[in-house]
Amino acid sequence: MKRMDSVWTWLVIVPLMAFSTIACGTLSLVLSLFPSTQRIQIEMGRLWAKSLLLIARTKVEIQGLEKIDPNGSYVFVSNHLSYMDTPVVFSSIPVQFRFLAKKGLFKIPFLGWHLSTAGHIPVPREDPRSSLRTLSRAAELIQTHAISLLIFPEGGRTMDGELHDFKDGAAYLAIKAQAPVVPLALRGTREILPMGSATIRHGRVRLLVGDPIQTTGLTLHDRRRLTEAAREQVAAMLGGAISLGTR
């Protein structure tokens, strides 16, 4: 079965995902030539994310979406298990998302073009001072453009699937922007595409939306407390969620 999954991945899934990335990236680049089209480009990105899930035969079950105002601005924080996490969240939550993404992703043809023209934000991880300036700029964008950001505060995907400590960058950003922090819990994406694997398996994913944590009146001195509050919600949702397999 594992061998068949691998063959199916490279003969069918990877070529279709590459085609979708090229098609959506090209259309996004064309749209960028016209003024005031970033919102349309974000919807194009959402269509791309949905296409990846369709190609991978991944079904998403969402719980708690009623807690989100589609016109609101939030800082979403989520556990990080797989490269499939971003498409799952992006396709499922109907807000004007922007992402803090590694600088290297902006150099990838088609994908990088979309990230640049749609207003996503490159993060220079190797330079802490530049990273802090990037967070301040992102906070300003949240306030002035009524957008939301998705951050994986563990700092990267986890090999063991366990919830690790959260870095406080998301809390810093949310407090600077005075935007609510919304914890998210993902289950099942690790079974679809584990870290270090090149094989994509079909299956089901559950996305749980936590209670928004207000930041009004908080100062940067409160960022560690806010970080822990967000992590506690994610841990509680993961503990109460039903494990979903790949078959």
Would you write up a description of this structure?
With 247 residues, this protein is of the alpha/beta class. It has one domain (2-240): Glycerol-3-phosphate (1)-acyltransferase (3-Layer(aba) Sandwich). It has helices spanning 2-31, 38-55, 85-92, 111-117, 128-145, 169-177, 189-192, 223-240, and strands at 58-63, 75-78, 97-102, 121-123, 148-151, 181-187, 203-209. Strands 1-7-6-2-5-3-4 form a 7-stranded mixed β-sheet, with helices on both faces. Helix 4 links the parallel strand 3 and strand 4.
For this entry, give a set of tags.
Glycerol-3-phosphate (1)-acyltransferase, 247 residues, 7 strands, disordered C terminus, single chain, seven-stranded mixed sheet
Can you give the helix content as a percent range? 40-55%
CATH class annotation: Alpha Beta
> Uncertain runs with pLDDT below 50, 5 residues or more?
241-247
Query: Which topology does CATH recognise?
Result: Glycerol-3-phosphate (1)-acyltransferase
Please describe the biggest sheet, giving its number of strands, its sense, and whether it closes into a barrel.
7 strands, mixed
SSE ordering: HHEEHEHEHEHEHEH
Approximately how much beta-strand content do the residues carry?
Answer: 5-15%
Instruction: Report the span from N to C terminus.
Output: 11 Å
Strand order of the largest sheet: 1-7-6-2-5-3-4
Q: Work out the radius of gyration.
A: 18 Å
CATH superfamily, by name, is Glycerol-3-phosphate (1)-acyltransferase
How many distinct helices? 8
